[in-house]
Amino acid sequence: QVQLVESGGGLVQPGGSLKLSCAASGFTFSSVAMFWLRQAPGKGLEWVSTINAYNTAVYTDSVKGRFTTSRDNAKNTLFLEMNSLKPEDTASYYCARDPRGLVRGQGTQVTVSS
Predict the structure, then answer these.
(1) In the chain, at which end, N or C, are there fewer CB atoms within 10 A of the end residue's CB?
(2) How far apart are CA 91 and CA 42, in angstroms?
(3) Is 73 left (phi over 0), alpha (psi -120 to 50) or beta?
């Protein structure tokens, strides 16, 4: 059974940083691409980043240069390091097995506010 559990969210001031984690189980984590998605209040699910099995990551334009996705295959864990956070980054963040989020975790809330 696929299980994805996100953690690390919280309240941070604009310009601050957070690092999210996603613990994965129930599948061969090291062999598959993984995704970060987010959903802001009142909006739909938005793709944020993809990292492939070879550790190459791509990002949506709005987070390029500020967010970094990485993975630790030995620990079946996905990470999203977020720097220079902006109020518009406020959202629930999800890790997912697919880019549409059909298989995703329960999410972790990130709130960027002064």
Answers:
(1) N
(2) 10
(3) alpha
